[in-house]
Design goal:
The complex is a heterotrimer of chains A (392), B (152) and C (318).
Chain A (H helix, E strand, L loop, with lengths): L1 E6 L11 E7 L2 E8 L7 H5 L4 H9 L6 H16 L5 H29 L3 H22 L8 E2 L2 E2 L5 H27 L1 H7 L7 H6 L4 H5 L7 H4 L20 H24 L17 E9 L2 E9 L5 E7 L1 H13 L7 H7 L4 H4 L17 H16 L2
Helix pairs in contact in A: 2-3, 3-4, 4-5, 4-11, 4-13, 5-6, 6-11
Chain B lengths: L2 H8 L6 E5 L2 E5 L5 H9 L4 E12 L2 E10 L3 E9 L4 E3 L9 H11 L2 E3 L26 H8 L4
Parallel strand pairs in B: 2-5, 6-7
Antiparallel strand pairs in B: 1-2, 3-4, 4-5
Chain C lengths: L1 H12 L4 H22 L15 H10 L11 H16 L19 H22 L3 H32 L4 H10 L3 H4 L1 H15 L10 H4 L9 H26 L10 H21 L6 H26 L2
Helix pairs in contact in C: 2-11, 2-12, 3-11, 4-5, 4-11, 5-6, 6-7, 6-9, 6-13, 9-11, 9-13, 11-12
Classes of the chains: A alpha+beta (392), B alpha/beta (152), C mainly alpha (318).
């Protein structure tokens, strides 16, 4: 017997609204259909009515967790159109904040995945350690999320000497914790039972479905924008692209934990070799006509911004491709044949950020005449609709 | 990657390849050559994946840009189609991973991708009217506001 | 004569009867929450009463005052009856367990069998409750509850029979009595103790085996449609089940209470909270298993181990 199970838009395993319609056969998934559109904010349309400086802030609000990656990507794309050369120190600070954001995101992910496995204790531990990195970001930027660090022409705040000292202490603590999590996640039998061999995405499939970020790297594909197309200061910093060949949720976990360690090394190197100098240059309001593309490795994968300017202070078209949209098809592939109990773990495995994936839509104007509905009418409408549809 | 390599691989005129800067190439091609071009780009040795598809409203035409990623470059293949009859061959059979990008553009620009089996709405709500494509230029914010009877 | 009757009434309603059991249930929930919170680096309940000790009671009263919804499509009679039955079934066996001295309030030859029967009935009730709410998630949850019953019931009952064979009686009071005059069963049958603890975790649907109500998968499974008073009763029943599980371990394996009437409850409670500590500790240390993991594990390891224990008792005569 197959029956359909809706998963979302509201579901405790999802932090954000997305809908998956699963066809289940004896607790096994035989088909899955994703449906987006629950958190559209129309950012790409809004962008056509804002000037370039305002868009820095808008870009940070595409996603709450990888906000800096989007702001960085946007700043880079505008700088390319303006032909701005940003100071070296700004590049290093950008790299540091981007890596801190990656650490923050990966700890968050580890906690959430543990929660989907029903391992509450690990969830609490991971999130407590995430607090350390968030406090560091708070110290540098003044905010815990949406740091407001990147701007067109550089960064907005410097990292002075006393902060570097405190950051090094925190980094030591975080590195020790990352080692501890490696130990836990490779040894604990209940974690291994829930992750090894679950949500398989073979390298060939990952290539065909254009997977990006840790999802691709856990399938053994060394796809990393930081290495392929160095931006900010990545060209000057040695680091290795972490890959695992397990193709399952466990590999995605190990990739992320190892990336935390790698990020800590990058931050240490950058702090040590950060050149002195100004942190930003002045950017003009008007942007000359042209097209530019910028790619950034966000914590979740490749971020792509395309910008077409028309010579005014507002863009002609700003296209954003967030990593989750690229990984959504891979996710559907992973979910095929998976046990119902493993669905949350597999979905968490790609680290979905729904708000990133969908930015475009408008207020529903389907009826020409506008009707303002009160809560009561809406309630009645919903009830009638369901009665008609399901014969309740 | 160099301009000459792309030219040789795609067998097109050099003036159709614009080198914007190091690692950035824009290639203008005809609609009918799209599939062949993508296939030939995929055969090049540093090909990694297709990053995304961008659509643009450029007056009477809709421009669709395929961002093909290589480890050492990003080649953007540009195709144009008219607004009256926006049909473009789908490349979902070459790269299955573009299905969602094509659906997104179909939703927001109304471009028909010939050969894509599933072009149902991905982002727009059920019951969105036919022939209304929110990211085309005529669908401005002022227009929405006037419809809602509100002010900016 | 009159005073004896009053004494009996006090025993039934105050101590160690209803009143005591209710507070024991709430207090156990608080202890459980505090211990798990400590393991998880949290505070746990803090605000109601000293160190939040009254929080479970506050939760219970709050739930009682909330809106009680019966889904339109639900099978009304079983849906409404289920929480009441669940609560009464969860309390009943507690009267068979000796708390003061080695004699329980209700004690007869074969009350161990009755407890086993009631514990299976509870699982069946959970299945009926989930099924009657006709929600997709609760349907899956109740099917899982039924499957889980197949996994843990047999090893659990075998592990409970072990002490009975050793003591030569099917009455819990007599088993306790036998242990007071001999050894604790924990030392004679360590394997049986381990099997019983694990099976009880599955029976209680606590974390490694909270498969029927896995909140991140099926939105708390069979409970999902219950609200207000029904949910309050179900949660209270779950507390009682927890008390019952700890009490069973104490009585069957840890020797139960002994000593004069003013000492024995204290000794009993000390042992009782050691069991609570063990069960809470296990809850904090694992990720959730899948239903197929549990079924395979139960039939591959738990059942053979329980049989081996009984075999050892018979052969060695201990």
């Amino acid at each position: 017997m197959t029956f359909e199970i809706p998963f979302g838009p509201q579901h405790p395993a999802l932090e954000e609204p997305i809908n998956f319609m699963f066809e289940i056969e004896e607790e096994r998934v035989v088909n899955v259909k994703p449906r987006l559109g629950y958190v559209h904010r129309g950012i790409e349309k809004i962008a056509e009515n804002r000037n370039y400086q305002q868009l820095v802030y808008l870009s940070e609000r595409i996603c709450g967790i990888c906000s800096f990656a989007h702001a960085l990507c946007y700043s880079q794309v505008v700088e390319e159109l303006l032909d701005l050369k940003i100071p070296e120190r700004a590049k290093f600070i950008r790299t540091i904040v981007a890596e801190m954001e990656r650490i923050q995101n990966h700890y968050l992910w580890l906690g959430l995945t543990a929660k989907e496995m029903g391992f509450e204790t690990l969830f609490m531990y991971a999130w407590r350690d995430r607090e350390t990195i968030i406090e560091m970001l708070d110290m540098i930027s003044g905010k815990r999320v949406n740091y407001g660090m990147s701007t067109i022409g550089g960064v907005r705040r410097d990292i002075p000497e006393p902060m570097i000292k405190r950051m090094e202490e925190s980094l030591n603590h975080l590195e020790a914790r990352a080692e501890y999590y490696t130990k836990v996640c490779t040894k604990d039998p209940s974690i291994l039972k829930r992750t090894v061999g679950i949500g398989i995405l073979r390298p060939r499939e990952a290539r065909a479905l254009c997977a990006v970020g840790p999802t691709a790297r856990a399938s053994g594909i060394p796809r990393d924008v930081r290495a392929d197309e160095p931006y900010a200061a990545y060209g000057e910093i040695p680091f290795k692209v972490v890959t695992y060949r397990g193709c399952d949720v466990a590999s995605r976990m190990y990739v992320r934990i190892d990336e935390i360690k790698e990020s800590i090394k990058i931050i240490r190197y950058a702090l040590k070799n950060m050149p002195e100098g100004p942190i930003r240059v002045k950017a003009p309001m008007r942007v000359p006509e042209g097209e530019a593309i910028s790619r950034v490795e966000a914590p979740r994968g490749e971020n792509l911004h395309f910008l077409k300017s028309n010579g005014t202070d507002k863009p002609e078209r700003w296209k954003i491709r967030a990593p989750t949209l690229a990984n959504l098809l891979s996710l559907c592939r992973m979910l095929m044949g998976v046990n119902l109990a493993d669905i949350p773990v597999v979905i968490a495995g790609i680290d979905p950020c729904i708000a990133c994936a969908e930015r475009i839509a408008l207020i529903d104007a389907k009826t020409k005449k506008l009707k303002v509905w009160e809560g009561k009418d809406l309630w009645r409408y919903a009830n009638e609709w369901y009665r008609k549809r399901y014969g309740l | 990657m160099r301009r000459s390599e792309i030219r040789k691989q795609l067998r097109i005129r050099a003036r159709n390849i614009i080198v914007q800067r190091d690692r950035r190439f824009f290639v203008n091609i005809e609609k009918k050559d799209l599939k062949r071009a993508i296939r030939r780009l995929m055969q090049m040795k540093n090909y990694t994946h297709l990053s995304t598809i961008t659509a643009l409203d450029v007056g009477s035409m809709i421009e669709v840009i395929y961002h093909v990623a290589f480890t050492d470059a990003l080649v953007s293949v540009k195709v144009q189609t008219s607004k009256d009859e926006p049909i473009i061959p789908s490349i979902v059979d070459l790269i299955p991973g573009v299905a969602l990008y094509e659906r997104e553009i179909h939703d927001l620009f109304g471009v028909e991708f010939e050969g894509n089996p599933d072009l149902s709405p991905l982002l727009l709500p059920d019951g969105w009217p036919e022939g209304v494509y929110p990211l085309r230029k005529w669908w401005s914010v002022d227009r929405v506001l006037s419809k809602l009877g509100g002010k900016r | 004569m009159v005073s004896e009757e009053i004494w009996a009434l006090i025993q039934i309603f105050l101590f160690p009867g209803f009143f005591f059991l209710f507070f024991l249930a709430f207090f156990t929930e608080w202890v459980d929450r505090k211990i798990v919170a400590k393991f998880q680096n949290r505070y746990g309940p803090l605000h109601v009463g000293p160190k939040g000790v009254l929080q479970p009671i506050a939760d219970f009263i709050k739930l009682l005052s909330k809106e009680d919804i019966t889904p339109r499509m639900a099978d009304k009679v079983p849906f409404n009856l289920m929480p009441v039955l669940l609560l009464s079934l969860a309390i009943t066996p507690l009267f068979c367990i000796p708390i003061v001295g080695s004699n329980a309030l209700v004690s007869f030859e074969g009350d161990l069998i009755v407890i086993m029967f009631i514990m299976s009935l509870i699982a069946v009730l959970v299945f009926i409750g989930g099924w009657a709410s006709t929600n997709r998630f609760s349907t899956i949850g109740s099917i899982r509850a039924g499957l889980q019953l197949f996994a843990y019931e047999i090893p659990m009952n075998l592990a409970m029979i072990g002490p009975a064979i050793a003591a030569g009686s099917l009455s819990i009071s007599k088993i306790v009595d036998w242990q007071i005059h001999g050894f604790w069963n924990l030392f004679i049958q360590p394997v049986g103790f381990a099997v019983l603890t694990i099976s009880l975790m599955a029976h209680l649907q606590r974390v490694p085996f909270d498969i029927p109500e896995a909140e991140s998968e099926i939105v708390s499974g069979w409970i999902v449609e219950f609200s207000g008073k029904k949910l309050a009763l179900i949660r209270l029943a779950k507390d009682f089940e927890f008390v019952l599980a700890s009490a069973l371990i104490v009585s069957l394996f840890l020797g139960g209470p002994y000593g004069p009437w003013y000492i024995s409850p204290i000794i009993y409670l000390a042992k009782f909270f050691i069991c609570v500590f063990i069960l809470s500790n296990l809850r904090a240390a694992f990720a959730r298993y899948r239903i197929d993991h549990l079924l395979a594990g139960a039939w591959k390891y738990l059942t053979p181990l329980a049989l081996l224990q009984i075999f050892l008792i018979k052969v060695l005569g201990v």
